Amino acid sequence: MYKKILIANRGEIAVRVIRAAKELGIKTVAVYSDADKNSLHVNLADQAFNIGKPLPNESYLVGKRIISVAKKAKCDGIHPGYGFLSENAEFAEECIKNKIDFIGPSADAIRLMGDKITSREIAKTAKVPLVPGTEGEVDDDEALGIAKKIGFPLMIKASAGGGGKGMRLVHEESEFENSLKMAKSEAKNAFNNDAVFIERFIQEPRHIEIQVLGDKEGNVVHLFERECSIQRRHQKVVEEAPSPGVSEKTRKKMGEIAVKLAKKVSYTGAGTVEFIMDQKENFYFLEMNTRVQVEHPITEMITGIDIVKEMIKVSFGHKLSFKQKDIQRKGHAIECRVCAEDPDNNFLPTPGTIFYVKSPQGPGVRDDSSLFNGYEVTTFYDPMLSKLIVWAEDRDSAIKRMSRALSEYIVLGVRTNLGFLVRLMDDKDFISGKLDTGFIEKHKKLLKIPKENSNIALIASAIMLHSGIGVENLERDPRFTPWKYIARRSSVSRNSMF
Amino acid sequence: MYKKILIANRGEIAVRVIRAAKELGIKTVAVYSDADKNSLHVNLADQAFNIGKPLPNESYLVGKRIISVAKKAKCDGIHPGYGFLSENAEFAEECIKNKIDFIGPSADAIRLMGDKITSREIAKTAKVPLVPGTEGEVDDDEALGIAKKIGFPLMIKASAGGGGKGMRLVHEESEFENSLKMAKSEAKNAFNNDAVFIERFIQEPRHIEIQVLGDKEGNVVHLFERECSIQRRHQKVVEEAPSPGVSEKTRKKMGEIAVKLAKKVSYTGAGTVEFIMDQKENFYFLEMNTRVQVEHPITEMITGIDIVKEMIKVSFGHKLSFKQKDIQRKGHAIECRVCAEDPDNNFLPTPGTIFYVKSPQGPGVRDDSSLFNGYEVTTFYDPMLSKLIVWAEDRDSAIKRMSRALSEYIVLGVRTNLGFLVRLMDDKDFISGKLDTGFIEKHKKLLKIPKENSNIALIASAIMLHSGIGVENLERDPRFTPWKYIARRSSVSRNSMF
Amino acid sequence: MKYSLKINKKIIPFELTDKDNNLEVIIDEKKYSVELVRIDSNLYSLICDGSTYTIAIQKQGKEISLFFKGDLFTYEIPSQRDKGGSENTSGIDKISAPMPGRVVKLLKSVGDIVTEGDGVVVVEAMKMESELKTTIDGKITEISVKEGDTLDLGAHILTVESQDKK
Amino acid sequence: MKYSLKINKKIIPFELTDKDNNLEVIIDEKKYSVELVRIDSNLYSLICDGSTYTIAIQKQGKEISLFFKGDLFTYEIPSQRDKGGSENTSGIDKISAPMPGRVVKLLKSVGDIVTEGDGVVVVEAMKMESELKTTIDGKITEISVKEGDTLDLGAHILTVESQDKK
After folding, report:
1. Please, are residues A317 and A2 in contact by the beta-carbon 8 Å criterion?
2. pLDDT averaged over every residue in chain C
3. Which amino acids of A are annotated catalytic?
4. Do D72 and D95 sit in the same domain of this protein?
5. What percent of chain A has pLDDT over 90?
6. Which DSSP helix (H) or strand (E) runs through B369?
């Protein structure tokens, strides 16, 4: 096994990889920017090296520096986590050139699957379903014929397009000719190019993805699907496995297709094949992520497979320790991304200092967090603070457990999306499982703080103000309390009966 | 389902039951003594009532008060946790008389199994193996004959005995007559009664127990075994499931026997049948615990069954939601009891204030804790602070995960057994799985702090002293640091390369 | 005793009575029987009319921050000048950059009349665009930036002044 | 600079140099290149000769408590009077009740000579019996309790005085 690996990342995923390495008996080296000097990943690693200024392109994205740290510290592997250099084929190559394993797929696999156009081409040859549509520009004469073949509703999109210009949603055949004319004219005006293509419009789409794992002997397995339809700003917030919208038949088909695609590029390590799925379970390839995914824990919870440990093992050359038929699903898992952002203000990030944090505990609860009292939320990096994951015997129990866990979660200092998540777990549409990527848009009331909660907060503040004493003093010593008259009295009045 | 239940307990088990109730949509009522006014179980419950002074017999053991709180708060059930009133048949009866469900077995079952002598009688009729020996006093004439039948080594014990007086371990036949004489004479002197009985001596015994669950329709299942051989002061410290010393054949036999015994008393709810087992897997009935066990989480982790939720459901009248054949084991789980005690001083409890606590997190880790910054360890209750539980795919991985999790656990304020646990997970004998109840006694070096650790502590203290500034000030605001010159410099000197 | 707290420039008055070991808070003419028990350094258990709520509290200077059921509430202790009694809105809302970023679009011009909650400017930070809103009714009296400008944390963007104060 | 710390009545001297941004600690003639980085309110990262260790620290008055690898270390900052330079043992060890309990058995009598680590009394607390030990070599000079006595927290049990001080 590796002797020592460098984790080229920060935050919770760096902590996650360090934990996996420790459990495999591998020494760990952390790298950090000036902004992350006092952070959990630095604290948990065996060694830590500063690699530059806070901005990612002056630290976490500077591959050369990272490789040179790895060489100095005598690492035999680099785990890139997600984001940053994780899907950078050049970096993967540079690692290998320097005789350090890149713990992930081959540079070739990254290159092939990382490009939207090549990956579509490969998908096509592997007979992976793609959103039906014209590959390129359509002639006016053929347009209606093609449109009928694709089926309605459909989208007309400007080939040179972007930002919604030259784009038309067509609900039925009768609207088509007129919409085509308008789209082309708009495209002409906007881009000086009236070329358009046609694609099926997926109504109420769900985001479904399949986790795959491959080894260097060519074995590839899938670990079933994840549903990631609850999104804001086109980014996932809540994920679950299995998907409440995927039947056993579709699950099997999707899994097989994902494995076939991964095999096409001799995929090794952990990867994810993303699909868009309509409410009738028709699904189409979107892209492949050639790295460990933020939401990998929910798959770990339902399969009992440690994806990060497996990544490291197969990268070192171990064969996958299981075959497809050995992989069993059990129960249901949900992940909530706890973020420093204001749901009631367009999910705007909320930088600042976390004064106090208390994580949920108890059965079936896992918190992959990099938080601590005094943690600084900066604008340099993603505002995700922690991933709260629960497992339970079925979806209803998992939702109730998540609700319970969220109710124990305390983050004082900056506004977070915890309140929104609490309300989401109580929402009957969420509970019904009929999800699509527009869910949050359609449930805006979940973004608002209920009046009764504001009242409780106000009442507590009122008592604070009445006490007339700054709480700051109390933090020094929990036994010292100028509020004694309240605390002491409580033993008398707090519903006391005897 | 129940509308509202009262939890007649404190500490982590009260928190555990509150969490289960919340996940079932049941309102919760906490009771607390004056010593527990600010504690987690009070905080997490929907309502909380003071029931008296710190001493258990002035609060948690006063059944009448607890029932009267339950009536006042309109509870329809009482969960007793473990300890306190959990195995008190009169309390169970009193609950029922007051039309409040006692969430546990019937008063009859508690009474029958709670008594050592009746439970042995029942075990005998159920053909549960008992430690071979004479039921009562032996005649001198027959003694050797009986001894030979039982086999050597064996124990001669004074019938009126206690404290080791009149007790003799006999290794072989030749020693027998002489030992008998001495034991009888000692017994005569000590208790004025020279009656003795003979029992087989179990060498290097393991403590193995079987978890059972029964419903009110007479269905009883077992959830496999737990190994609880790592003990100090005859109390468990580390438990694991499955046992590394139990073969599949023995597991099946033990499970069947436990179910048979539970059925004999129409057992409902969660219970545990305890066995003593020798290193050849001969096992003998010890006793039955008619309540939820401290170490129930490891069974939950390997079976995916929430024992506390099941207890509540079957008590309400639900049928068990699974049959024996549905229950599958997966992976390996270990629990460490984190206690405020000094392993290097005969595990003497260490009362005081916990200034700071940081719980481990990440994959496969569960911490059932009632700790918080400012928690007071009093002498009124058990010194257990938390139960750290891990699950992993196999025993080796589980030990490594526990080791990793323990290395993240921080409890500042009072001495705990964490250091001992850290060293235990690294011990090759523990790793080999050859355990017996004398393990700690035989591995006393694990109780000592290694010299290299003391050195690191001393070095850190040296820097503290050099800084010349009280750390107390730092706690007020994590951003304010009079140590800036150290913190700032670190960005330069901390292995910085660029 | 009478007190008041300020949130989003609104002053909320309340009364607190502390008799015979019973603490009562009166807000909006509703009476709540309350108690606060300290658990942890910042963690409290609020008992309000018999039910228990977990609340985390931080007081910093004139601000009280509370965390309850996943949401953060920040109250200001009003200065003597603020204390008018019933709800009123202060005259000026100076909108500044909540984080370093860039001005994407100004939605209003000097002289425009705005209502509480109106979006006034779109800024980009952390690769995301966000709309900043005014918290009072009034008129835009000053704009210190133009589209495309880089913003430092706290940089002034624009000012809204309420009309009735003029 | 020269410093010292006290643990179990032993004084441990050490030297600390702070030159050119390099902090070095010298203990027992061994030199360690060190650094301490603050993470959390009480959590620190100690870098010692290139390796990172997680340490929690609490300073209360003259005492420094450290948590490292599961164990608690408590050092006392010696008073001026204590500072003798090299290791020495102070004259008196007053043994008192570490928690409320009961005296089960006195293992020594006044006048007995004891060695560091010798058990001197068995006390019972929290239903468990424990042996208390002396931390110095010396002679029992005073016993304030008898078997069966109830002990309050901190109650004096007996005193050991070192012989060479006499």
Report:
1. no
2. 82
3. 291
4. no
5. 78
6. strand B365-369
Q: What is the ipTM of this complex?
A: 0.83
Among the ranges given (A182-196, A411-425, B335-349), the one the predictor scored with the smallest mean pLDDT: A182-196
- Contact with chain A for residue D59, Cβ under 8 A: no
Chain A positions in Cβ-Cβ contact with residue B364 (cut-off 8 Å): 306, 366
Contacts of A471 in chain C (CB under 8 A): 42, 57-59
A214: pLDDT strictly greater than 90: yes
Assess whether pLDDT exceeds 60 at residue B160: yes
Q: Are C71 and C95 in the same domain?
A: no
Whether the bond between B244 and the residue before it is cis, its omega within 30 degrees of 0, is no
The pTM of this model reads: 0.86
Answer yes or no: do C71 and C107 share one domain.
no
Judgement on whether residues C71 and C94 belong to the same structural domain of the protein: no
Q: Is residue C83 part of a domain?
A: no
Q: Is B476 a catalytic residue?
A: no
Say whether C23 and A486 touch across the interface (CB within 8 A). Answer: yes
Residue D83 lies in a domain: no
Pick from C113, C124, C115, C108: which is nearest to C158 by CA?
A: C108
- Judged by CB atoms closer than 8 Å, whether chains meet at A19 and B362 is answered as yes
pLDDT tens, residue by residue, B381-401: 999 999 999 999 999 999 999
Domain assignment of residue C16, given as a range:
2-76
Please tell me if residue C12 touches chain A, with a CB cutoff of 8 Å: yes
Q: Cα B456 to the chain's mean position, in Å?
A: 33
Whether D122 maps to a domain, the answer reads yes
Collect all residues of chain A within an 8 Å Cβ-Cβ radius of residue B353. 478-479
Q: Closest approach of chain D CAs to the CA of B95, in angstroms?
A: 29
Q: Are residues D18 and D69 located together in one domain of the fold? A: yes
CATH number at residue C138: 2.40.50.100
CA distance A382 to chain C (A): 8
Q: Are residues C38 and C70 in the same domain?
A: yes
pLDDT digits (tens, 9 = 90+) for C71-87: 999 988 876 555 444 33
C98 and C62, same structural domain?
no
Task: Please give the backbone phi and psi of residue A323, each rounded to the nearest 5 degrees, phi first.
Answer: -110, 165
> Which residues does chain D have within 8 Å of residue A372's beta carbon, measured at their own beta carbons?
39-40, 43
B251-284: b or e for each residue (b if 16 or more CB lie within 10 Å)?
Answer: beebbebbbbbbebbebbbbbbbbbbbbeebebb
How many angstroms separate the CA atoms of B8 and B62, rounded? 10
Same domain, C96 and C59: no
Interface with chain B: mutation pick from D4, D40, D42, D71, highest number of B CBs within 10 Å: D71
List, for residues D9-31, the tens digit of each pLDDT value.
788 888 888 777 678 999 888 99
Which residue shows structure tokens 């000197």?
B493
What's the domain count of chain C? 2
Q: What is the pLDDT of residues B64-120, one digit of tens each?
A: 999 999 999 999 999 999 999 999 999 999 999 999 999 999 999 999 998 878 898
The pairing of beta strand B220-232 with beta strand B206-214: antiparallel
What is the chain A residue with the closest CA to C67? A412
pLDDT at C88: 40
Q: What is the CATH number of the domain that holds C20?
A: 3.30.700.30
**Given CB atoms, is A169 within the 8 Å cutoff of chain C?**
no
CB contact at 8 A, D37 and D48: no
